[in-house]
Design a protein that fits this description.
Chain A: This is Peptidase M48 domain-containing protein. The complex is a heterodimer of chains A (409) and B (264). Chain A contains 20 helices and three strands. With 409 residues, chain A is mainly α. Chain A starts with a helix and ends with a helix. Chain B is an alpha/beta fold. Chain B has eight helices and ten strands. Chain B is globular, with a radius of gyration of 22 Å. The chains are: A mainly alpha (409), B alpha/beta (264).
């Protein structure tokens, strides 16, 4: 009995694969050298299912102009290969700074990441990095590595500060790689870009700056999943120098990038607000206002971020604790509530500014109405909310009507 | 005297027990009033995920079983709602998603809002029967687009996760149980679950977003039985369909809920 107890686990550990790790070739190798194993077929099937799930959840951005832009960039970067996998690109309705690649060749770029990257050179570096994961078949290699390791469960809950957005558990499983693979992808990304019109150093510098921003703390970010981004950036620069790439000053110009980037702004701000990331939403609105100072919609969102900071102090405290590494406790909630009158005043100011800049915009009236409601000013609330409902195309009419019904009396 | 004392003891015990009884059920504090505006419900496609936990860590989603359990859960839900005199609206969500990606995204947003609301609803874990109606959770306007498309007064959200262990994993569990038993000379022999499931449900007013009723249960089988249990605790309310013909008497006023969350 004792012998059985000790031998059984050893027997169970002997589960084998149909392919060895060393047989996994890069897609840039000759096609006849590929071995398409059962494991890879399973991975591709799971990736396809995940993609279908993302489509069914409405998480893939269908903006044709934006998708065409990405496809155009990809053509300039992708290495040549002829294989059983095609690389496809998608923009994901997600505000976090992330991008990921699946074993079926699908690469997803989060709207939040694109919106944050100031130049096409930076985005090109990210895309090239993800391409490298696909081309080198890192998903399959990772699976083969893991077959020899006993793991109790891989269900990962990607929680953004407790909002519990669990639909990305499968992404975490299929699209997270080892440090070695990340470094290999970094190196290959630079190679892919070396012959293009993209400025390599600009790309690396911007990514370094990105992780120093508040957003860099986001769980699941490709740039924070492995330690020491500075080491990776340094390795990148050393490679550029060693290979004598772009030794003369590189002038890259992509005049349409700003329109493409800013087309995703509203989506990103709305998602941040929905995820109760009020400060991050406000930061984006302020940043964009520096570029478009008369944008009434941005003033509305700034007003909304401030309103929510005051009306959802607990949620704001969670964000604050996460951003500034403070303890989320009653003291923090109390400290932040002391700022409520300031947030309320700022919110009103921003909503009113929005109405001044664009009287045809309905949203600021909703903001003013909800603000009045938060402050128990029934008459003002009813007046503003009714003004909001007087516009066409109001999607949350039922909800606002239910609030007004509650105020009747 | 003794008989009176016995009666007092019984009454006291009942009071203590019912007062201390813990529950996973949650009601909105206005649930009885909100119910008077609800006569139809649409069941959003249940989110069902069952996976087989394998020894090598590469867990396998059990898609066929998930589809079967999903269908069973939705049937159980429909029957229970109809037993409460609520009209269950049939709606082809798959077709609607294909025609309108914004609608698909709206469902996702509703589920995200529900996840956030669950944090508020279940932060304290089990609560007493008295406390279960103290909640003000709301999904805001997240369900308005669903109300516009389906015409339903309320929506039922369902999330189910289940697992089964593979034979290799069970063998590993048996081996480790045997090992622990051997090492403790039989004093401890752990028995590990080979399957299990957890279900979360919420009935939400599609206009105001108020979570009328929510509940959650776990089970030791990866089947639809937790759904029978969870829906068995639907509240016995007077729904709109059960109200008498309207009169000229004013409806009772509701209090303002200034903390209702907003979403676009």
């Amino acid at each position: 009995m004792r012998v059985l107890a000790f031998l059984l686990p050893l027997y169970l550990l002997g589960c084998g694969s149909t392919i060895n790790k060393k047989d996994v070739q890069s897609l840039t190798n000759r096609p006849e050298q590929f071995v398409i194993s059962e494991e890879e077929q399973t991975l591709i099937a799971r990736s396809n299912k995940l993609h279908n799930d993302l489509v069914k959840q409405g998480l893939i951005v269908r903006n044709k102009a934006a998708n065409d832009y990405i496809a155009h960039m990809a053509k300039k970067i992708e290495p040549d290969f002829d294989a059983h996998i095609d690389i496809s690109y998608f923009i994901l309705r997600d505000s976090s700074l992330n991008a990921f690649a699946l074993p079926n060749g699908n690469i997803y770029l989060n709207a939040g990441l694109i919106n944050q990257l100031a130049s096409e050179d930076e985005l090109a570096l990210v895309m090239a990095h993800e391409m490298a994961h696909v081309v080198e078949r890192h998903g399959l290699i990772k699976l083969l590595d893991r077959k020899q390791t006993v793991v109790s469960s891989h269900v990962v809950d990607l929680i953004f500060m407790g909002t519990g957005l669990i639909y990305f558990a499968a992404i975490s499983d299929l699209a997270s790689f080892s440090r070695q693979m990340e470094e290999e992808a970094d190196s290959l990304a630079i190679e892919y870009l070396a012959e293009s019109d993209y400025d390599l150093n600009k790309g690396i510098t911007a990514i370094e700056k990105l992780v120093l921003e508040k957003h860099g703390k986001e769980l699941g970010s490709i740039w924070s999943s492995h330690p020491d981004i500075s080491t990776r950036a340094k390795a990148g620069r050393e490679k550029i120098s060693a290979m004598n790439w772009q030794v003369t000053e590189h002038v890259s110009s992509h005049p349409d990038y700003e329109d493409f980037r800013s087309s995703l702004t509203e989506l990103v701000i709305k998602t941040r607000l929905r995820n109760k990331q009020f400060e991050l939403a406000a930061d984006i609105a302020k940043r964009e206002l520096e570029i478009s100072p008369d944008n009434a919609l941005l003033y509305y969102y700034l007003g909304e971020a401030n309103r929510l900071k005051s009306s959802e102090t607990r949620a704001y405290a969670k964000e604050y604790a996460w951003l500034y590494d403070e303890d989320f406790d009653d003291d923090l909630i109390e400290k932040l509530s002391e700022g409520n009158s300031g947030y309320i005043a700022s919110s009103k100011q921003y909503f009113e500014k929005a109405t001044e800049l664009n009287s045809t915009l309905s949203l600021p009236y909703k903001g003013l109405g909800l603000l009045a409601l938060d402050q128990q000013d029934v008459n003002q609330a009813k007046s503003y909310l009714q003004q909001y409902l007087s516009y066409d195309g109001i999607k949350d009419r039922r909800y606002i009507n239910s609030l007004i019904d509650n105020l009747k009396g | 005297m003794l008989s009176k004392l016995n009666k007092l003891v019984v009454v006291f015990t009942v009071l203590v027990v019912t007062g201390c009884a813990q529950t996973t059920v949650r009601h909105h504090q206005d649930f009885e009033t909100v119910a008077k505006n609800v006569q139809s419900v649409v069941i959003l496609p249940a989110q069902v995920e069952i996976e087989q936990i394998n020894f090598d860590g590469d867990n396998t989603p059990l898609e066929e079983k998930s589809a079967l359990i999903k269908s069973q859960i939705e049937s159980i839900a429909e029957l229970k709602l109809e037993n409460e005199s609520l009209q269950v609206i049939e709606f082809d969500f798959a077709k609607a998603f294909e025609e309108d990606e914004e609608f698909a995204y709206a469902i996702t947003q509703a589920k995200e809002a529900w996840e956030a609301a669950k944090g508020e609803l279940y932060e304290q874990g089990l609560v007493s029967e008295k406390e279960k109606s103290n909640f003000q959770a709301s999904l805001g306007s997240a369900l308005n687009i669903i109300a516009d498309k389906t015409g339903a007064d309320a929506a039922l959200l369902v999330q189910y996760t289940g697992f089964e262990k593979s034979s290799g994993m069970i063998a590993k569990d048996v081996a480790s149980s045997v090992l622990v038993g051997v090492l403790t000379l039989g004093a401890v022999v752990p028995i590990q679950a080979t399957e299990g499931a957890f279900i979360d449900v919420a009935l939400v007013d599609s206009n105001s977003g108020k979570v009328i009723w929510a509940n959650r249960k776990g089970g030791t089988s990866a089947d639809a039985s937790p759904a029978e249990i969870v829906f068995g605790e639907l509240p016995d309310l007077t729904w709109k369909s059960e109200l008498a013909a309207p009169t000229n008497q004013p409806v009772a006023e509701e209090s303002v809920s200034p903390k209702a969350p907003d979403s676009e």
